[in-house]
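Lab notebook, bench 4. The sequencing result for the construct came back, and we need a structural model before the next group meeting so we can plan mutations. Quick request posted to the team channel:

Model the 3D structure of this chain.
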Amino acid sequence: MSLFVPKFDSSVVVREAEAEKIGDDPVAVRLLADSSASGGALSTVRVTLAEGADGAYPHLHHNSAEMFFMLDGAAELLSGDDIVTAERGDLVIVPPGKPHAFAAAPGTAADILIVITPGVERFEYFRHLQRIRLGEVGPESLLEVQELYDNHFLQSAAWDGRR
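Done. Here's the predicted structure in token form:
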């Protein structure tokens, strides 16, 4: 097993009021710390989903684990073929290579802190998603950047059949 030691000299402090916010209701993403800020240790965002809103479609990361910490509300999370409902205070960590997705649980909103480790520069990925939502680029453009962001989309019968 290799040990990754991040290299950065100063503590990272991100004030909520200073964090870039992408989107709004039904999906808002606050960009907190990208990989470059933490010496590659992690990338972290805060995702707020309105009642029943989808967060991310099924995908996997080859090189990073993803942690979901429920700040408030409840979310359905795909982990492999299992659907887990996580509520306020719950933590779910998905290992590299395991398909996952998330959405606000039916009847509730969700506020989720998401951490990817080791980090990947992902702020531009979220900006790209916003350009898709605004119709500036087509959804097929995500296929061109899957490797860049280690975000590989896939089909999931378990996720599609959950509601």
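The helical segments are 123-133, 146-149, 157-160.
Will bring this to the meeting.
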